[in-house]
Amino acid sequence: MEELTQRQKKIGGILQQDLAEVFQKAATDGGLKGVIISVSKVNVTTDLSVAKVYLSIFPNKEAKALLEGIRSNKPLIRHELSQRTRHQLRRMPQLEFFIDDSLEYIDGIERSLKGEDNPLEKPDLLGKRKKS
C-alpha cells in the first residue's frame, strides 16, 4: 500500500465528511426510511484526480440497488461536493463508489469464533474476500 501524504489525508477527510452530509440529506429528501448510508473511507490518488469512496449501506439487501443509483447520479453528487468545497479545493476529483463489505466479513469471523458457524464443517462460509 502506498504512503498517503498529508494533503491526500486532508482531502479524503473533507470529502468523507461532505459526502456523508450529502447522502444523509438525499436519504431524508428521497424518502428512504430505514436505510443508513455511511461513508466508511475515502482514498485519494497521489495526483488528487480520483477519489475512491467506500460506502456501508444498511440494510445490506438494498446495497446493490442504492449503489447503482448513486453511480448514476455521480455528476450531481460531484457538483454538490464542488459547491461545498469550492474554497478548499481547486479541482474536484472524479468519484468512484464501492461497497465496503468489511463489517459483514468481520461479523462472519466473529460468528465462526463463537462457534455459531463452523468454517471447518462448511468451508464456503468464509469465502474469498472481494477486492475492489
TrEMBL record:
Pfam families: RBFA (PF02033). Its main location: cytoplasm. Keywords: Cytoplasm, Ribosome biogenesis. It is found in: Cytoplasm. It comes from the Bacteria. Monomer. Binds 30S ribosomal subunits, but not 50S ribosomal subunits or 70S ribosomes. One of several proteins that assist in the late maturation steps of the functional core of the 30S ribosomal subunit. Associates with free 30S ribosomal subunits (but not with 30S subunits that are part of 70S ribosomes or polysomes). Required for efficient processing of 16S rRNA. May interact with the 5'-terminal helix region of 16S rRNA. HAMAP family: RbfA. Belongs to the RbfA family. This is Ribosome-binding factor A. It comes from Winogradskyella bathintestinalis. The lineage of its organism: Bacteria, Pseudomonadati, Bacteroidota, Flavobacteriia, Flavobacteriales.
